[in-house]
Design goal:
Blueprint lengths: L2 H13 L3 E9 L6 E11 L2 E10 L3 E6 L1 H14 E8 L2 E7 L5 E7 L25 H5 L14 H16 L10 E6 L5 H13 L4 E7 L2 H13 L5 E5 L13 E8 L1 H13 L3 E7 L3 H5 L6 H4 L2 H22 L2 E7 L10 E7 L6 H14 L4 H5 L1 H4 L1
Parallel strand pairs: 8-9, 8-11, 9-10, 11-12
Antiparallel strand pairs: 1-2, 1-5, 2-3, 3-4, 5-6, 6-7, 12-14, 13-14
GO molecular function, one term: methyltransferase activity
GO biological process, one term: methylation
Keywords: Methyltransferase, Transferase
Length: 387
Amino acid sequence: MEFEQMKVQLLALISNKTLIQATISQPRQKSNDLKRVKLKPVEIREEYMIQLEYQYERILKHENVTLQDLTAKLDMLFEQFRQAHAEFQEQTIQVQLSKKNKVLWKSSQNATAKQVDLSHNRKKQYLLDDSRVHPFLVRLGVQAEDGKIKKQKYDKFKQINRFVEFIDDSLAHLPKDKTIRILDFGSGKSYLTFALYYYLKVEKELDIHVTGLDLKKEVIDECNHIAQDLQYENLQFLVGDINDFNEETQVDMVVTLHACDVATDMALARAVKWGAKVILSVPCCQHELNRQLQAPALSVMTQHGLVKERFAALATDSIRAELLSLVGYDTQLLEFIDMENTPKNILIRAYFTGKKPTNEQRVKYDEFVRFLNAKPFLENELQILLK
């Protein structure tokens, strides 16, 4: 079979919409960073397309192409690779090319006809697809080398994807004409920091620089080591406290996850003063209001320590959201992950709009904190902006 005839025949089989999956591999050049390309059919907005998954040494990239555009893609791929394995509904094709493009074509009939399965388009669609290998998830121990999500890490995988959904929703609010600066206060083991970087830099190919900040030196050292292994050049981790971090004068996105008590308020205040366009915060251990709370009308609730603690936590986050609204942010309190995974499941999402608050908003806020006898730390930090 001639080389051009092989491409025509392969394309015809794919165009018949009988493809199950295919892999194009065996790079012609050893120095080629692209190791293989996988193809599978997908349905996007009711249009049949082929998804190409480009597997590099450390990263994955994806592209969905129409059948009309697939010819050019196959031309390009067979310039780089010498082997193809394709499964169709009724047959399996194996193609091997010599250095001079002589074609060895083998075809075998399947014992039973296979079905094209597009069910992945109807199940829960994770932005970080659980059917693909994500190098950072493998490195962090969430995925096995074959891409399978480890059973004990599946809740973490869902949490990571929920966070990535919030990141994706925030894209329209980030600048497009400069490097996007992102700070993550209290990054800890940095599952979500790596996810943020991977999604924005690798998947979306945005110009970003991400800094994770934490007090634990051994954790920071390990995170930097992982970032270097993955060749994430614009991701760094530093040892430091929120109050002592003065390396930036302007930041576009601030993330703070499970910063304890008023550490969350410190991070929110710094984000506002930096003019952050996006704030994503998952608070933790809201003790401040619990200590201050004196509201006799609520004594039926607050006489119970557990109930008082939970009410204080909800009231604290409501106060934080309202304060951000008063200084020009469109703010919402959203569920981060299911309650069955952790009770600390509220995320504060704030996009800067510059909208001025109404007198009614300020009056309602003042009445609420006065009723609770609260003196919020964040209000004091933002006092100049609230005047």
